[in-house]
């Protein structure tokens, strides 16, 4: 009986993860779809781009802020349940974007869409942490990450294509349909009893939530992971945000070509996804992010020095490969650094990730205005070299060691 049940359970878990991946694809596409459709919205309402920027920034603000809210809710009421309801809310708010007839309505729908979508990716990662043994988790999380990479790519490229031929509202209708597919799959899995892990039971209330986050921040392993992901996001996206504008200014290439150049970043990420198991087996827990840091540092040095436009394509692709070598390792640690409150721990990980991006973008913009983009790229390269050394020498050698360190930290 045990032997027949184990493959069945594994299959059901795999089926659920596929639907979680579909929901994560939709959430990722929603974060980047405005890159392509903002000019179309501005044209329809007869305003300039600056007047519709709030449609994009409102989503980003609530998406980052509400990570901290949904982590404890997932621990308390069940990650699977919260993800499912967040998918329903995301679908409704996406439809509201499609059918809104005023800029104010679109902005409000986007604001609420950011609130709902904030629950999906971090709680999906936390649910996988509950359902999948730690020795199998990193390669599976790498595959799961491909849904987010493809979602970002689809939002940027697909949003432009759909908007061009069918109007900008069609992009939101398509994303809403993807949410419907994901929610339907999750509801069926729930009815079949396949979502028994991550069902909740943690302590509730504001005081308990504050205590949980306070305990996490006192944990030395949690602090290490949060420090590492903050450095990673600060350096990576503080510089990467300005790569496209730098290429356009330096080489005079058009914006369509800039978009194609930047898309190679996602291709590099997908290369990592396909090779993650081999790379992890070959390099291990410490060397994998270390080598990734060296690759990212080399690509930023290359972008700072190159005088030939087309060389940016392999550099940006290699940057995507290196970044996901780092981020997948840190993401896996985030799922194991506090298993008893996994939803909260992944949520605080995501919050530090997004807030550090925002700080990096602002500071890099200040430096670029005074010293140029090359200075920002070189600074990012140096930071990644330091991050690589930190990960190689200080990262716990295994997830078992991570848990042991966590227990020792709590005991102290």
TrEMBL record:
It comes from Seohaeicola nanhaiensis. It is a multi-pass membrane protein. Keywords: Cell membrane, Membrane, Transmembrane, Transmembrane helix. The lineage of its organism: Bacteria, Pseudomonadati, Pseudomonadota, Alphaproteobacteria, Rhodobacterales. The keyword Protease does not apply. InterPro entries: MFS, MFS_dom, MFS_Efflux_Transporters, MFS_trans_sf. It is found in: Cell membrane. PANTHER family: CHLORAMPHENICOL EFFLUX PUMP RV0191, PURINE EFFLUX PUMP PBUE. Pfam families: MFS_1 (PF07690). Residues 16-398 form the Major facilitator superfamily (MFS) profile domain. This is MFS transporter. The chain crosses the membrane at residues 45-70, 82-101, 107-128, 171-189, 224-245, 251-273, 285-302, 308-326, 346-368, 374-397. SUPFAM superfamilies: MFS general substrate transporter.
């Amino acid at each position: 009986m045990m032997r027949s049940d184990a493959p069945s359970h594994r299959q059901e878990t795999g089926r659920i993860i596929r639907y979680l991946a579909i929901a994560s694809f939709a959430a990722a596409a929603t974060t980047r779809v405005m890159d392509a459709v903002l000019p179309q919205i501005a044209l329809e309402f007869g305003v300039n781009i600056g007047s519709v920027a709030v449609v994009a920034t409102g989503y980003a603000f609530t998406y980052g802020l509400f990570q901290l809210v949904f982590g404890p809710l997932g621990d308390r009421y069940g990650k699977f349940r919260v993800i499912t309801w967040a998918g329903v809310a995301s679908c409704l708010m996406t439809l509201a974007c499609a059918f809104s007839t005023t800029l104010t309505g679109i902005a409000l729908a986007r604001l609420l869409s950011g609130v709902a979508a904030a629950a999906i990716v971090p709680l999906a990662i936390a649910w996988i942490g509950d359902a999948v043994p730690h020795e199998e988790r990193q390669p599976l999380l790498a595959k799961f990450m491909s849904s987010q990479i493809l979602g970002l790519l689809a939002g940027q490229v697909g949003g432009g294509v759909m908007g061009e031929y069918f109007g900008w509202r069609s992009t939101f209708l398509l994303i809403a349909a993807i949410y419907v597919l994901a929610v339907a799959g999750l509801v069926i899995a729930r009815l079949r009893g396949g979502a028994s892990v991550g069902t909740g039971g943690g302590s509730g209330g504001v005081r308990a939530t504050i205590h949980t986050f306070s305990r996490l921040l006192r944990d030395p392993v949690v602090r290490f992971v949060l420090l590492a992901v903050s450095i990673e996001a600060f350096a990576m996206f503080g510089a990467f945000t300005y790569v496209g504008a730098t290429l356009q200014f330096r080489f005079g290439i058009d914006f369509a070509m800039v978009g194609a150049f930047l898309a190679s970043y996602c291709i590099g990420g997908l290369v990592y996804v396909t090779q993650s198991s081999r790379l992890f087996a070959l390099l291990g827990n410490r060397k994998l992010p270390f080598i990734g840091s060296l690759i990212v540092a080399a690509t930023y040095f290359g972008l700072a020095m190159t005088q030939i436009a087309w060389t940016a394509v392999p550099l940006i692709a290699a940057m995507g490969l290196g970044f996901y070598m780092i981020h997948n390792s840190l993401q896996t640690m985030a799922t194991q650094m506090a298993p008893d409150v996994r939803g909260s721990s992944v949520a605080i990980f995501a919050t530090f990730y997004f807030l550090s991006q925002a700080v990096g973008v602002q500071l890099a913009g200040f430096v670029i205005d005074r010293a140029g983009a090359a200075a920002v790229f070189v600074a990012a390269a140096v930071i990644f070299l330091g991050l690589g050394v930190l990960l190689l020498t200080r990262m716990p050698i295994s997830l078992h060691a991570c848990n042991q360190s966590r227990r020792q930290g709590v005991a102290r």
